[in-house]
């Protein structure tokens, strides 16, 4: 972080030493900064929110900084981040100064390098007499257009690379490649970049023409919320897993596919043993940490194709597409062992909290032909696992008769089922 901050200060120094300010450049710079400020203010209540842990967020502000990079000397590309981030700090939320300084420096260095590269590739051949860019200087020929696009790509790559590297170094769960493999993020970057180039073209014709881009950009910013709303509607907020309704939706689709193609499919119903005792002893904050730890343990013991959801409380459900009953039983044993190794630090205590899980297994065709029937069979097997002493796996085959034989606990089983169905 210190190195990136030093690079940014060096970029400013080089820019000041090599740039002769012109009124036309200052005017263009001021108009674009004003548009960025209006863009932030116009979407303040809807768009601006913190990114999820380990992820970046697309704020669409590059729509206004890309024209600065393409149209003005490199100094302005390095400078534009200062007023924009200062306004973000004032209106959106206060970030620690260390993080703010790094964000400013990373974006400023990326802008400076991209602007310098653009000038080297294009400036010598299509710079007009008044020392201002025109439309032909940006997209006039295939070669010039390729140079413009290359510079925009370089800008994004440097900025994303620096931010992703710091996230990787400061977070145990973040991986460098994860920042570059999100398809939705790249769609947003592509839309942001193309819009930024269009704004640059408008600005090349007249700085005031960019004002017509404000309304479309505000609408584009709002479209970013669609993915967030969709994720929120599908995700359990405590664990980050699929919620019950979305898991059922995916399970219905997989069952239809299995029914048509003859593929096996199985369901695991997982319940944390004695979870109430954890909440009673350590508190609900630690209980939430345990839920997240179990969710991590479940996903680490599965294939990428397997689908995990939280049904509420301490109960989870896993869809195993392509697994028969025996394969599902082996997976359940692996998941059970994986969760048993999870240890969570208790809040305000120097203790590690570990839990175990009981697992019920049911397979498509063997135990049912619908999501409801599979869950019912897995639930019966789960109850058998609880009665067998917990921290074990039971399959639906034969589990129903075992449950019916438990006449002393039969009423309790019915009550538990009724409670779960009322919650769902």
What does it look like?
The protein has 424 residues and is an alpha+beta fold. Helices cover 63% and strands 8% of the residues. The protein has 2 domains: 2-232, no CATH class; 244-423, Reverse transcriptase/Diguanylate cyclase domain (Alpha-Beta Plaits, 2-Layer Sandwich). It has helices at 2-18, 23-42, 62-71, 74-79, 81-91, 97-126, 135-139, 142-170, 183-205, 214-234, 244-261, 275-282, 284-300, 325-340, 371-387, 399-404, 410-423; strands at 265-272, 307-312, 315-321, 344-345, 352-353, 357-363, 393-395. It has a 5-stranded mixed sheet with strand order 2-3-1-6-7, sandwiched between helices. Helix 15 (371-387) links the parallel strand 6 (357-363) and strand 7. The longest helix is centred in the N-terminal third of the chain and has 30 residues, at 97-126.
Q: Mind sketching the topology for me?
A:
Elements: H1 2-18, H2 23-42, H3 62-71, H4 74-79, H5 81-91, H6 97-126, H7 135-139, H8 142-170, H9 183-205, H10 214-234, H11 244-261, E1 265-272, H12 275-282, H13 284-300, E2 307-312, E3 315-321, H14 325-340, E4 344-345, E5 352-353, E6 357-363, H15 371-387, E7 393-395, H16 399-404, H17 410-423
Parallel strand pairs: 6-7
Antiparallel strand pairs: 1-3, 1-6, 2-3, 4-5
Could you list the spans in which at least 5 consecutive residues all have pLDDT below 50? Answer: 50-56, 125-131, 399-424
Q: How many helix segments?
A: 17
Using DSSP, what is the number of strands? 7
What is the helix fraction of residues, given as a range?
A: 55-70%
Rg, rounded, reads: 28 Å
- Name the average pLDDT: 81
- How is the main sheet built? 5 strands, mixed
Assign the structural class, choosing from mainly alpha, mainly beta, alpha/beta, alpha+beta, or little secondary structure: alpha+beta
Q: Which band does the percent of strand residues land in?
A: 5-15%
- Principal-axes geometry comes out as elongated
Oligomer: single chain
State the end-to-end CA separation: 47 Å
Strand order of the largest sheet: 2-3-1-6-7
> What order do the helices and strands follow?
HHHHHHHHHHHEHHEEHEEEHEHH
Total domains, how many? 2
């Amino acid at each position: 972080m210190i190195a990136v901050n030093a690079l940014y200060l060096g970029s400013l120094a080089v820019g000041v030493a090599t740039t002769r300010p012109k009124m036309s450049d200052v005017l263009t710079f001021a108009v674009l900064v004003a548009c960025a400020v209006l863009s932030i203010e116009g979407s303040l209540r809807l768009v601006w929110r913190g990114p999820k842990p380990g992820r970046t967020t697309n704020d669409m502000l590059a729509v206004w900084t890309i024209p600065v990079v393409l149209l003005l000397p490199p100094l302005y590309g390095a400078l534009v981040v200062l007023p924009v981030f200062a306004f973000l700090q004032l209106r959106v939320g206060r970030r620690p100064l260390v993080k703010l300084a790094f964000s400013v420096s990373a974006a400023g260095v990326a802008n400076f390098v991209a602007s310098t590269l653009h000038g080297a590739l294009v400036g010598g051949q299509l710079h007009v007499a008044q020392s201002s860019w025109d439309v032909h200087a940006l997209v006039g020929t295939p070669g010039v257009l390729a140079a413009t696009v290359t510079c925009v790509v370089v800008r994004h790559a440097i900025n994303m690379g620096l931010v992703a590297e710091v996230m990787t170094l400061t977070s145990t769960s973040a991986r460098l490649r994860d920042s570059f493999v999100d398809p939705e993020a790249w769609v947003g970057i592509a839309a942001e970049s193309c819009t930024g180039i269009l704004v640059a073209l408008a600005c090349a014709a007249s700085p005031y023409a960019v004002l017509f881009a404000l309304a479309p950009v505000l609408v584009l910013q709002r479209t970013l919320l669609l993915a967030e709303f969709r994720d929120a509607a599908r995700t359990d907020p405590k664990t980050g897993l699929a919620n019950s309704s979305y898991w059922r939706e995916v399970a219905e689709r997989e069952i239809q596919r299995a029914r048509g193609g003859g593929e096996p499919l199985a369901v695991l119903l997982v319940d944390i043993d004695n979870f109430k005792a954890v909440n009673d002893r350590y508190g609900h904050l630690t209980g939430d940490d345990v839920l997240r730890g179990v969710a991590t343990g479940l996903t680490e013991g599965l294939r990428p194709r397997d689908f995990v959801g939280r049904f509420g409380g301490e109960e989870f459900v896993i869809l195993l597409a392509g697994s028969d009953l025996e394969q599902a039983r082996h997976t359940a044993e692996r998941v059970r062992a994986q969760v048993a190794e999870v240890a969570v630090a208790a809040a305000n205590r120097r203790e590690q909290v570990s839990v175990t899980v009981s697992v019920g297994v049911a397979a498509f065709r063997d135990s049912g032909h619908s999501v409801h029937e599979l869950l019912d069979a897995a639930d019966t097997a789960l109850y058998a696992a609880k009665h067998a002493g917990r921290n074990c796996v039971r399959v639906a085959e034969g589990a129903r008769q075992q449950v019916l034989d438990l006449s002393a606990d039969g009423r309790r089983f019915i009550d538990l089922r009724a409670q779960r169905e009322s919650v769902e």
